[in-house]
Amino acid sequence: MTRSYRFISEHRAVFGVTRLCRVLRVRRPGFYEWLAAAQTRAERAADDERLAAEIGEVHADHRGAYGRPRIVAALRHRGRRVNHKRVGRVMRERGVVGLTRRRRRSLTRPDVAAAPVPDLIGRDFTAPTPGRRLVGDIT
Asked: Lower CB density within 10 Å: C or N end of the chain?
């Protein structure tokens, strides 16, 4: 939708708004609403840039370890009212991610000395009658 409105905005001097709206199958009042909201979109983009700068500052202060939840808490501690979804969106758009410094531990370790279990049915799970082949797996 936005691409259509942007196209109409760029070419309205040549073809006219009514014709372009008809060809692109968009509502003409919708185009004018989009046009009127340009100032609001610009303000929001500027506010997102300021928020991204603050996020980058908090992220750098903590050596890149903070992810979205901790960054939201830090921003709120600084007195900034933010929504966690907006912080997540801004971080995702800018490629800011928190680092995981802990090593992942595996709770189950396979026994390397154990013999593999033989495949008794040869991966053929079809049965001639019900109740003839019962198989199970505990993965």
From this structure: C
- Residue 24 and residue 3 share a domain: yes
Cβ contacts of 82-85, under 8 Å, gap ≥ 24: 82/51
pLDDT digits over 47-57, tens only? 999 999 999 99
User: Contact at 8 Å (CB) between 129 and 121?
Assistant: no
Query: What single string gives the DSSP state of each residue in 53-104?
Result: HHHHHHHHHTTT---HHHHHHHHHHTT----HHHHHHHHHHHT------SPP
62: its two tokens? 């903590």
Task: From residue 121, give the alpha-carbon distance in Å to each of 7, 114, 124, 127, 133.
Answer: 63, 21, 6, 11, 9
Amino acid at 54: E
Structural domains of the chain, count:
2
CA distance 42 to 36: 11
Structure tokens at 66: 């903070």
User: Which tens digits make up the pLDDT trace of 10-59?
Assistant: 999 999 999 999 999 999 999 999 999 999 999 999 999 999 999 999 99
Dist CA 4 CA 82 (whole Å) = 32
